[in-house]
Design a protein that fits this description.
Shape: globular
Structural class: alpha+beta
Number of helices: 11
Distance between the termini: 48 Å
Radius of gyration: 20 Å
CATH class of the largest domain: Alpha Beta
Number of strands: 10
CATH topology of the largest domain: Aminoglycoside 3'-phosphotransferase, Chain: A, domain 2
Mean pLDDT: 92
Largest sheet: 5 strands, antiparallel
CATH superfamily of the largest domain: Aminoglycoside phosphotransferase (APH), C-terminal lobe
Strand order of the largest sheet: 1-2-3-5-4
Number of domains: 2
Order of helices and strands: HEEEHEEEHHHEEEEHHHHHH
Helix content: 40-55%
CATH architecture of the largest domain: Alpha-Beta Complex
Low-confidence stretches: none
Length: about 325
């Protein structure tokens, strides 16, 4: 980035800013590159579209900015949005600047360093904030047009099949089988429509340094108006993966002894918070979550091959998991 040009823009758009400006790129994330901006006058976070040719509708940092600005002051904790720059010429792509929130991220949901009591409190907070997102009055916060009408899953299925085809690098038989099954078993529209985050995972939450409270929900790139079970199934999908740095799941862990909720307990508590019935055919929703994540990882792989990934080496490694995610989607289909 041209720090001189960025500094001039910051002086115009960020109250109280004064240079000189320095940047540190965060090494997490494979979608929109994210940086901490430091100067004698304070610290901020910049999130930008990656450079180069991109898939249509992907990397929508302007939508991220809009939804987080709309949620300011709501029960959903988000960083304070400061300014959006839609001029691609300034640093090479569209970006926005937000406040820097000091907190901790939890990459591994098994939380090996925590006590069982702390794990329980952290997961309860995760469920509470998920329910709060889905309970947002989208009309009151100005997001009634944030997603198109119609059957959310039909719309999402069409979008992600299209994205997957655009980034496909070879035929993957389990992915083809999963696409065929999902297309043939689409649930009917049931009237449930709300704000959805689109990638609600524990590593996209910023917790207070010394407690279980969530200070900010991050990475709203995939947010829209849609079906709440998409986020709920996304949480359950993540937990089916192996524990550790790569899988970041809970498979094989004695959750009761660890103070972690079972899938059923988490879903039941979520439904109780929102006063809704437990979902039928939950296997479809989890299978779809695996399909969508496989499509996302395929896009990460394609960007790595094209030289546009935030971390090309990691992008190629993540791309090797696409067949396994498709297989897990078929398992969710079979086990319900």
């Amino acid at each position: 980035m041209d720090l001189n040009r960025l500094s001039d823009w910051m002086a115009e758009h960020v109250p109280g800013f004064s240079g000189p400006l320095s940047t540190v790129k965060f090494d997490v994330g494979q979608s929109n590159p994210t940086y901490r901006l430091d100067s004698p006058s304070g610290s901020w976070v910049l999130r930008r579209k990656p450079p180069g040719a991109l898939l249509k509708s992907a990397h929508a940092v302007d939508r991220e900015f809009r939804v987080q600005r709309a949620l300011a002051g709501s029960p959903v904790p988000v960083p304070r949005m400061i300014a959006l720059c839609e001029d691609n010429a300034l640093i090479g792509s569209m970006f926005y600047v937000m406040e820097h929130v000091a907190g901790r991220t939890i990459a591994d949901p098994s939380m090996p360093a925590e006590t069982p009591e702390a794990r329980t409190a952290i997961m309860n907070e995760m469920g509470r904030v998920l329910a709060a997102i889905h309970d947002v009055d989208v009309v009151a916060v100005g997001l009634s047009d944030y997603g198109p009408p119609g059957n959310y899953y039909e719309r999402q299925f069409s979008r992600w099949v299209q994205q997957y085809r655009a980034s496909e690098t070879g035929e993957i038989a389990p992915m083809e089988a999963l696409i065929d099954w999902l297309g043939a078993h689409m649930p009917a529209k049931d009237g449930m429509r709300c704000l959805v985050h689109g990638d609600y995972r524990i590593d996209n939450l910023l917790y207070q340094a010394d407690g279980p409270r969530i200070l900010a929900v991050l990475d709203w790139e995939l947010s829209t108006l849609g079906h709440p079970f998409a986020d709920l199934a996304g949480v359950i999908m993540q937990w089916q993966l192996p524990p550790g740095a790569e899988g970041r799941g809970l498979s094989g862990i004695d959750r009761a002894a660890a103070g972690l909720p079972s899938d059923e307990d988490f879903v039941t508590a979520y439904c109780a918070r929102r006063g809704i019935d437990r979902p039928d055919r939950f296997g479809f929703y989890v299978a779809f979550a695996f399909f969508r994540m496989a499509a996302i990882l395929q896009g990460v792989k394609k960007r790595a091959l094209d030289g546009n990934a935030a971390n090309p080496e990691k992008g190629l490694r993540l791309g090797t998991f696409v067949p396994r995610f498709a297989e897990l989607g078929l398992e969710a289909r079979d086990h319900g």
